[in-house]
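Page 47, continued from p. 46.
Same chain as before, 179 aa.
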Amino acid sequence: METSQISGLILENTFTSIPDIVRGWPVIGPLSFACTQRWNSASKIPKIPASLPILFCSGRNDGVVPPPHMDKLWKLAKERGRLAASYRGGVGVGPGIRGRMGGMMCCTPSFGLVLCRGGAGGEEVPTEEWYPPDEDVFMSYTRGGHVDTCTQPGYWPAIENFINKTVSSSTSGDNQLMR
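Result:
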């Protein structure tokens, strides 16, 4: 994914997927399998580079997109960068999953260093370090609903701070969007 022209991403009251939303609805929830439109945000978040900061604005009183959707997306975002590793042309595995990479048995421990067993003497061979995204921000607005989160106290200052921080860290600082 080409992100060189993107300084940050802002998500507000976003769902994990359309079927996940429908699953929570009374009466038709069991028919969520019939959704032809997926809009699977949860599958897209891990593909965003860990170097790209994300601001999550979550209205905790949202009656359209239940807050656990944003919580799940936040959790997935904090795992970015861990989901892919490579070693001698092999493909890495996700967190806590064991598999083969470059002909070696591998696992990804929680502290962020991918280790492979099966080196010359069966020793652990570090293949890639992982640094969790540290620029991501989760803002929670207790009274924010689906359409009025942007009217909650602190919302616009959080947006301004995020934009200024992400733009200034990706440019020389002369082109800040907000001052």
